[in-house]
């Protein structure tokens, strides 16, 4: 009997599709401030692409490509980006996440400063959601793997 981790067709299709899924996730994050979508949805799509990799190969494959340490770093960087933009707005004299105050440090008008601030928030949220989804999946999958041992 062939193991589900040795199915050449599934692995080949996933290997071809995963880069396009990740590219689409990045697109959703990048255009979330001006169209439907955003950081959360894009982060879920990116996280799902890594989970698809794990399901088509095995748990060790995702751990080789994205270690737990790297995942924690992604999670931390996403939160730092989000919180950092808010703190910069506070330090410039505005309210938390009042992006128009970013015009003081960016050579743009207030409307463009808001757009850049929102984009930064979307990136932070996307990276964080991706890392949390992968972490939850790995925790659940590893628990099942430990029970089987």
Brief rundown of the structure:
The protein is mostly helical and 149 residues long. The chain contains five helices and no strands. It has one domain.
Characterization of this structure:
The protein has helices at 8-30, 39-56, 59-65, 68-91, 110-148. The chain has one domain. With 149 residues, the chain is mostly helical. α1 (8-30) runs antiparallel to α2 and α2 (39-56) runs parallel beside α5 (110-148). The protein is elongated.
Mean pLDDT: 88
Helix % is: over 70%
Specify Rg, calculated over alpha carbons.
19 Å
- Pattern of helices and strands: HHHHH
Total individual domains: 1
Distance between the termini: 21 Å
Shape: elongated
Strand content: under 5%
Largest beta-sheet characterization:
none
List unreliable stretches of 5+ residues: none
Please report the total strand number as a whole number: 0
So how many helices? 5
Structural class: mainly alpha
């Amino acid at each position: 009997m062939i193991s589900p981790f040795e199915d050449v067709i599934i692995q080949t299709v996933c290997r071809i599709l995963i880069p396009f899924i990740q590219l689409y996730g990045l697109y959703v994050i990048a255009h979330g401030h001006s169209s439907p979508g955003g950081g959360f949805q894009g982060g879920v799509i990116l996280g799902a692409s890594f989970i698809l990799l794990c399901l088509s190969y095995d748990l060790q494959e995702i751990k080789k490509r994205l270690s737990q340490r790297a995942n924690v770093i992604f999670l931390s960087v996403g939160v730092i980006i989000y919180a950092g933009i808010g703190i910069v707005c506070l330090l410039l004299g505005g309210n938390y996440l009042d992006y128009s105050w970013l015009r003081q440090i960016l050579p743009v008008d207030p409307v463009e400063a808001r757009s850049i601030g929102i984009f930064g928030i979307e990136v932070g949220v996307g990276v964080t959601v991706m890392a949390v989804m992968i972490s939850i999946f790995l925790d659940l999958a590893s628990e099942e793997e430990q029970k089987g041992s």
